[in-house]
Design goal:
Length: about 55
């Protein structure tokens, strides 16, 4: 349901994403406003690269 709400908000602003990536499904767990670590950014970048290939 959470995903559907975000998709609806994106579509309202004229965006129709081809892919949807959830960081927690990639193993990234954050506590509050904790800053992202470089290895987490690198992991998500590799997931995005794989999805668009």
């Amino acid at each position: 349901m959470y995903r559907l709400l975000w998709e609806k908000k994106l579509q309202e602003h004229g965006y129709d994403p081809d892919i949807h990536i959830i960081a927690t499904e990639c193993g990234i767990i954050k506590n509050g406003i904790e800053d992202p670590r470089f290895d987490e950014i690198e992991l998500l970048s590799s997931v995005v690269r794989e999805k668009i290939r």
